[in-house]
Backbone:
């Protein structure tokens, strides 16, 4: 018979394997999605299939790894797009772009090292009971009420002038999208790994329906924002808002931060701040010319004296 120590060791090994699978899927998702930006310019017909692969990998990643890990790693898609554009489209990375790439890699490594490695909710039945938790329901109702207020009051007045309006709706609904999609992925994963079939559960189909509705709303307002505002500004603002709200929503429902140590929480915050700076740098300053020789003040001073 297996002792409790043996079972605990097996549980730790399973969590470690699940974490590594989720991490690999999250990274591959960023590669596919980032590559799609370049394929859109090279061959417009191929973008839909590649984006689909990326989003599918992203969805499956939520079944194995905490959302607090998967979502921030979306910054890697910006890095992939920047590197591939420099290689295939001959769009040279300036100093800002190189700094942004370096910061993106550093921030991702720090975040992975300190991110939550397991979740309190591992069974679909546990998720079903947690969905009725008053804290989570309060968050859902807050998002829905806020979305209606923004839609009715602020969109007609400021939708075409403020970048925050559409992206706030997109990010808030997007945080629910991640939570519902993670629930769907968890139900499918449990159905495959056990003899319990969650496909016939009404909760599973409710989560799937809500996921589709939220994805449609999220994409609608994201496209509106991209139609009106510069992509270089939309991307970093959306990344920050979306990631913060996803971490809040998943933390409430899945308790991903509950047993983390203080230094790991600080490490995650540090990694996320670095990723924020990296995404803003890669998008906002990628078209600015910033030669290294301009920093050589002594050389410029000598030139001015000589003339």
Residues:
């Amino acid at each position: 018979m297996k002792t409790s120590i043996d079972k605990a060791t097996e549980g730790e090994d399973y969590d470690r394997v699940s974490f590594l699978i989720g991490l690999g899927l999250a990274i591959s998702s960023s590669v596919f999605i980032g590559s799609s930006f370049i394929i859109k310019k090279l061959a417009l017909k191929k973008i839909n299939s590649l984006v689909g692969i990326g989003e599918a990998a992203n969805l499956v990643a939520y079944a194995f790894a905490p959302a607090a890990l998967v979502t921030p790693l979306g910054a890697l898609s910006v890095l992939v797009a920047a590197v591939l554009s420099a290689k295939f489209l001959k769009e040279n990375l300036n100093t800002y772009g190189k700094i942004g790439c370096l910061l993106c890699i550093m921030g991702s490594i720090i975040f992975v090292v300190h991110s939550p490695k397991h979740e309190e909710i591992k069974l679909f039945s546990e998720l079903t009971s947690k969905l009725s938790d008053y804290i989570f329901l309060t968050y859902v109702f807050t998002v829905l009420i806020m979305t209606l207020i923004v839609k009715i009051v602020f969109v007609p007045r400021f939708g075409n002038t403020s970048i925050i309006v559409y992206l706030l709706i997109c990010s808030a609904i997007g945080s629910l999208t991640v939570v519902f999609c993670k629930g769907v992925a968890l139900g499918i994963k449990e159905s495959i790994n056990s003899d319990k079939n969650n496909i016939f559960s009404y909760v599973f189909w409710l989560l799937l329906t809500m996921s589709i509705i939220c994805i449609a709303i999220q994409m609608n307002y994201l496209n509106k924002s991209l139609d009106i505002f510069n992509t270089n500004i939309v991307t970093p603002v959306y990344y920050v808002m979306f990631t913060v709200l996803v971490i809040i929503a998943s933390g409430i429902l899945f308790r991903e931060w509950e047993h983390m140590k203080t230094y790991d929480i600080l490490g995650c915050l540090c990694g996320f701040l670095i990723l924020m700076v990296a995404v803003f740098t890669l998008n906002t300053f990628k078209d600015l010319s910033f030669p290294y020789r301009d920093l050589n003040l002594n050389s410029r001073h000598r030139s001015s004296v000589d003339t």
Observations:
- Confidence is low (pLDDT under 50) at residues 4-10, 40-49, 290-305.
- The chain is about 80% helix and 0% strand.
- The CA atoms of residues 175 and 244 lie 9 Å apart.
- The two ends are 88 Å apart (CA to CA).
